[in-house]
Amino acid sequence: MALHFSSACLCSLSQRRVQKIRAVASVSSVTEEDKVKLGGSDLKVTKLGIGAWSWGDTSYWNNFEWDDKKLKAAKTAFDASIDCGITFIDTAEVYGSRFSFGAINSETLLGGFIKERKERDPEAEVSVATKFAALPWRLGRQSVLAALKDSLARLELSSVDLYQLHWPGIWGNEGYIDGLGDAVEQGLVKAVGVSNYSEKRLRNAYKQLKKRGIPLASNQVNYSLIYRLPEKNGVKAACDELGVTLIAYSPIAQGALTGKYTPENPPTGPRGQIYTPEYLTKLQPLINRIKEIGESYSKTSTQVVLNWLIAQENVVPIPGAKNAEQAKEFAGALGWRLTQQEVDELRSLASDLKPITDELFCFLLSVMYKVNF
Ligand SMILES: NC(=O)c1ccc[n+]([C@@H]2O[C@H](COP(=O)([O-])OP(=O)(O)OC[C@H]3O[C@@H](n4cnc5c(N)ncnc54)[C@H](OP(=O)(O)O)[C@@H]3O)[C@@H](O)[C@H]2O)c1
């Protein structure tokens, strides 16, 4: 089982402890108590989901290549996740699409995985979240319904659980929100949300939907121990006040918080532009403390940083899984809790680091999607 411990870490742990942590990492412990209602909607999802951006993607992930091996690994990630009881899966119409220079649309892959799973396990529970790309030439509420129907066709589903606006449009946002409301009223989705919305946009979207008696269920934003902008820009506080769930994307900082990347072994591809050897050097004291805390609970670093996010309350992290091992490990983030002292200590250690800038993320995403945020 690849748990991505660095060799230094492996040396410092006794064999017994490693075995214990490995066992915990693969425990299927998700229960009804590990589910939450998404905002004010009736949709109940696991307190942690998984992200499917990397499935079929060749623009940011997978070293710009997609092959059968990666496809099989993505399928095992899906199955392992469902086996562990993590049933909330996040995708988007742009992931893996030709539009974002991908190999296969992530929705198409997910649709195939669900179909195959349901054939041999008809009772299997899967909650699908997908997203509308607010492209400048898409105007009006009809564009949301049209894109949703295309997503449903790729997913081979008659409805999805959560439909989100992937990012605010340059214009036409009121029309998009109307489109979300129409999707609920037409029974095409159970709940609706937004993504990458500022506090002001979030409040406006919430108000507009409320007039129709429809709750805004979620706002999906970048949030991790080392990217805490939502705590500073009013988004987390507004989500808590309005009863909108904050869905945390990139919750393990694209692998940087797992401890597997070091100054000597930085990530390749676009991630290498963000998590440079210099940045990873500064990150080490935090990584070391995360590891130590994890050892005291027989948990991996990945499980600690996901548990830290869940401890913020009203937060559902959606880490990306490329294979079964990664997906299984996520499940071990549920069913236990860091102490408040540990939560505070980790935030304080992380505060010593210069935050990764939003501009860099937006630049990389805008290059990918050819849009401006
Ligand atoms: N709404 C938006 O604008 C937006 C933006 C970004 C992401 N998202 C969503 O959020 C999801 C998650 O975000 P993300 O994929 O950017 O970042 P992430 O979840 O922080 O990191 C995922 C990556 O970390 C590595 N990893 C995963 N599990 C690991 C483990 N147990 N040990 C070591 N490394 C592990 C994998 O890459 P390697 O194995 O290659 O290291 C994986 O692809 C996406 O899939 C997507 O659904 C949404």
Automatic annotation (TrEMBL):
<dbReference type="InterPro" id="IPR020471">
    <property type="entry name" value="AKR"/>
</dbReference>
<keyword id="KW-0150">Chloroplast</keyword>
<protein>
    <recommendedName>
        <fullName>NADP-dependent oxidoreductase domain-containing protein</fullName>
    </recommendedName>
</protein>
<feature type="domain" description="NADP-dependent oxidoreductase">
    <location>
        <begin position="47"/>
        <end position="349"/>
    </location>
</feature>
<dbReference type="Pfam" id="PF00248">
    <property type="entry name" value="Aldo_ket_red"/>
</dbReference>
<keyword id="KW-0560">Oxidoreductase</keyword>
<keyword id="KW-0521">NADP</keyword>
<dbReference type="InterPro" id="IPR036812">
    <property type="entry name" value="NAD(P)_OxRdtase_dom_sf"/>
</dbReference>
<dbReference type="InterPro" id="IPR018170">
    <property type="entry name" value="Aldo/ket_reductase_CS"/>
</dbReference>
<dbReference type="GO" id="GO:0016491">
    <property type="term" value="F:oxidoreductase activity"/>
</dbReference>
<keyword id="KW-0809">Transit peptide</keyword>
<dbReference type="GO" id="GO:0009507">
    <property type="term" value="C:chloroplast"/>
</dbReference>
<dbReference type="InterPro" id="IPR023210">
    <property type="entry name" value="NADP_OxRdtase_dom"/>
</dbReference>
<keyword id="KW-0934">Plastid</keyword>
<dbReference type="InterPro" id="IPR050791">
    <property type="entry name" value="Aldo-Keto_reductase"/>
</dbReference>
